[in-house]
Amino acid sequence: MKLSSLSSSSFFSYIIALFFIISLCVFCGKDLVLDIVPLQYDQMNFKNDNPVLPFIINHTTKGCDIFAGKWVYDDTTMPHYEEKECPYIQPQLTCQKQGRLDTAYQHWRWQPHDCSLPRLNASLMMEMIRGKRMLYVGDSLNRGQYTSMICLLHRLIPENAKSLKTIGSLTVFRALEYNATIEFYWAPFLVESNSDNAIVHRVKDRFVRIDSIERHAKHWKGADIIVFNTYVWWMTGRPMNTIRQPFTEDLKDVKMMKTEEVYRLTMKVMLNWVKKNMDPLKTRVFFTSMSPAHESSKEWGGDLDGNCYNQTEPINNPNYWGKFSNKMMMQVVKEEFQRSAIPITLINITQLSEYRKDAHTSIYKKQWNPLTLEQIANPTSYADCIHWCLPGLQDTWNELLYTKLFFS
Ligand SMILES: *[C@@H]1O[C@H](CO)[C@@H](O)[C@H](O)[C@H]1NC(C)=O
Ligand SMILES: *[C@@H]1O[C@H](CO)[C@@H](O)[C@H](O)[C@H]1NC(C)=O
Ligand SMILES: *[C@@H]1O[C@H](CO)[C@@H](O)[C@H](O)[C@H]1NC(C)=O
Ligand SMILES: *[C@@H]1O[C@H](CO)[C@@H](O)[C@H](O)[C@H]1NC(C)=O
Ligand SMILES: *[C@@H]1O[C@H](CO)[C@@H](O)[C@H](O)[C@H]1NC(C)=O
Fold first, then answer.
1. What is the pLDDT of residues 257-287, one digit of tens each?
2. What residue's CA is closest to ligand 1, atom 13?
3. How far is the CA of 127 from the centre of ligand 1 (A)?
4. CATH code (residue 96)
5. Which of 48, 72, 102, 146 is deepest in the core (most CB within 10 A)?
């Protein structure tokens, strides 16, 4: 079967185009690698009173559902850093620099109903990951969260003791004095696919090789903390093309399968890899749930033809849930995680991010292709309602991760 014979839809093409535009430039900024003299620091001793979950230092939020809560406007403690203070933010996410005038989206703090989140303490975090490798694996949304994490931490590290380097699918932030790395690995489906090139992944018809993860996963071995995500690339609105054979250029045996079914198989393959490769006594594994999109303002009772463009406030309705977030897919994750009994912590950001129609990059991102006159006349038509400005919502995702890692 030839790929070009597979059908496509305009929504699908739109998403593909969007991703291509977004991913043309991964960390376009200058290379930040410098000569570094490693320093020796005394290891700090933290009491670890939960032998089952490594890294926990205090059960401050144990038993509290930190994902259930509300957004509180707080311009004294938020944001954690200024956009221009963090040189690592890709120009697709530097909203202020790209002309966004309002800043309220940076000042919302997540307040769980039953407890408070510990404030992210960069020096504590760096001490805890001393000598360790922390790795985010997934798509551009996970890359945004990864970038947020290095923005939250980098201030602590002197200019000549840190570096950022991208080679192929792997981006590595290195903190020399701590002998620690925080890394991102591009694998939008986790398993192998025809979208795996970190720069050029514009593909008209997507397929995954459902049984093959090793070509990616060999780069994940030895990680002490892994944060996975995978969702948006699955949402083409049609069945997924699946191949059950290792990588060859030859596309025989392409099979169409229901998206949830292939997603479930992918979860199984990922969990099986975790079981074989991650020691539960020494390492931690996280999975970030689906990131919502705000493509249609009718969904929250706004204009009939609007989207996230020109949205400056969160949604108030506590039950709001947009169409882009497929509950069946979330159910698949829940079921497979329960069934596997592997210690993997879900960072359940979906509901709290549903409220944040104001937090997307919208039109305030670097445009890789010149806009047409039609687009300029109608900004809604090219607003990105999938990705998020930094600083912003994804800093909260990391505070939740931080809380689960050390305080749950
Ligand atoms: C845990 O955190 C709480 C609240 O921050 C604090 O009162 C308590 O002393 C801490 N316990 C330990 C063992 O550090
Ligand atoms: C942050 O953590 C360090 C330990 O690395 C501690 O000494 C310091 O007091 C903490 N800061 C705050 C504000 O809690
Ligand atoms: C740095 O960390 C690695 C593990 O990530 C360890 O093998 C190595 O010995 C450490 N080096 C130093 C100088 O502490
Ligand atoms: C943006 O929203 C405000 C109200 O919130 C409205 O007055 C204004 O006309 C909108 N601008 C555009 C370009 O849609
Ligand atoms: C994530 O959190 C929301 C809101 O608290 C909840 O409805 C949903 O079931 C949770 N998802 C999973 C997989 O636990």
1. 888 998 999 999 999 999 999 999 999 999 9
2. 58
3. 18
4. 3.40.50.1110
5. 146
